[in-house]
Amino acid sequence: MNRKTLVLPAVIGLLAPVLAACGGSDSGSGDSGAIVVGTTDRFTASKDAPAPLDPAYAYDVGTWNILRQTVQTLMIQPRGEGEPVPEAAERCGFTDTGNERYACTLRDGLTFAGGNAVRAADVKYSIDRARSLKADSGVFALLSTIDTVETQGDREVIFHLKTADATFPYKLSTPVAGIVDPDDYPKNKLRDGFDLEGSGPYTLKADVEDGELVKAEFTRNPDYKGALEVNNDKVDMVSYKDADAMGKALDEGDIDLMTRTMSPDQIRELSADSDTDIDLVEMPGLEIRYLGFNTDAPTVKSKAVRQAMAQVVNRSALVSKVYGSQAEPLYSLVPASVTGHSNSFFNKYGEPNVTKARSLLNQANITTPVKLTLHYTTDHYGPATKKEFEVLRDQLNSSGLFDVGIKGTPWDTFRPAEKKGEYDVYGMGWFPDFPDADNFLAPFLDADNTLGSPYDNSRIRGTLIPESRREADRLSASSSLTDIQDIVAGDVPVLPLWQGKQYVAARDDITGTAYALNSASTLQLWELGRGVSG
After folding, report:
1. DSSP readout, 370-418?
2. What is the mean pLDDT of the chain?
3. SS in 3 state form for 231-251?
4. CA–CA dist 44, 292 (Å, integer)
5. By mean pLDDT, which of 43-47, 328-332, 426-430 is the weakest?
6. What letter would DSSP give residue 517?
7. pTM as predicted
8. Which of 11, 137, 68 lies closest to 416, judged by CA?
9. CB atoms within 10 A of CB 491
10. Which of the four CATH numbers 3.30.1540.10, 3.10.105.10, 3.40.1350.10, 3.40.50.720 does domain 288-500 have?
């Protein structure tokens, strides 16, 4: 029968599985073949994004889920609770009291999949390359606190930081800090297409059709040396056009596991079904959804318009109608379970109130109804996105203060247009690079932010973000973090909507599913194995 496995956190980031009874049926994909994972992520090489898998460019959860299997980083986020641990490194740590000098020693005998030795100079090359290329994805901003990278011999790497950054070990665990072979990755340009080599637990063979990666074949790297225990020899990741096609493939035994992105209906059905050989694993997640604003656009340049939207939107009704128990209303960019969270938007606006919203617009001499288009992506965040934006449209229009239309666009067109500032208001999601409040604030508010947002608050950038990073004890950073969230609630350069749980559905002979995703929504394919159904 079906089992719904709950993975509950004792503290943030801790994944502790609680298992129920299981059912019995043979997997349709065969006991000796690859474990097959389904996804609705689309991987396209285009004129606007010719290098989707280059670590110096990639900056979305789908491409990072490929990179994390193949490109090794000095540090890695642990399976459960705690700070990053050494991966390609044997050891790492701050060597001063001010958190401004960070040193790592590489493991002995590391090699790239092509056979070349991994040296300290390669780490420096990889980091400096990402910083100098400054890809328009904005991923290089994760390395913004680095001043210089120094090497001593073949195994010692020293990072000299511009300012104290207690989050720096986390940043070294992200794919932008992935170690690449200079023979394969040119210094002055991105590596186009889907070729990818590293020193991680798997090698990659990309199956490409018409400029799109349709299947990623991960084969265990026999020369891998690192902190991870690899529990399988091969995993295939297959990209499906939508959640229905992916769900059908799981039902028919064509795949063994699916995760991104199941529909709310699929999750409800799997949770309720007591007679199937497919198990649903539910775990806490740090995914958030929000509206972004081009604060230079005439329609939303006035802060009063953005504040009025914040005053009208009913998050509880939105979540209830679209996602049910699979999500929770969010009143800050920082999720409720992360240290430093503050309900800043609720504190400022309280419950939805049309009268207060009208007053905000009247005081700013804004003519109503304000005509807007809300843009969303049709194929990146799951099939419920359209319904979500229909609910948002209806909420805003029913106030009488707005005349809102919605428009959906595929991700490979949506994301470049958003970065170019072509949308006044747009819907985005965020899967954290690492589970710290800084990573829910700086990527949207700092210089070179991932949205390309023109919003610039000098106190946030010049004082509060640097101030918060000086605190190794993240609870001690709460005052600075709260101030940032309060400023965001007042200026509304972004409007947080909800945070969601994460789910994996797998045939019941697949083991390790409780650890298939970590708290930052990272796929950990090395955790998967094949056991006995029943």
Report:
1. EEEEEEEESSSS-TTHHHHHHHHHHHHHHTTSEEEEEEEE-HHHHHHHH
2. 92
3. CCCEEEEEECCCHHHHHHHHH
4. 24
5. 43-47
6. B
7. 0.89
8. 137
9. 17
10. 3.10.105.10
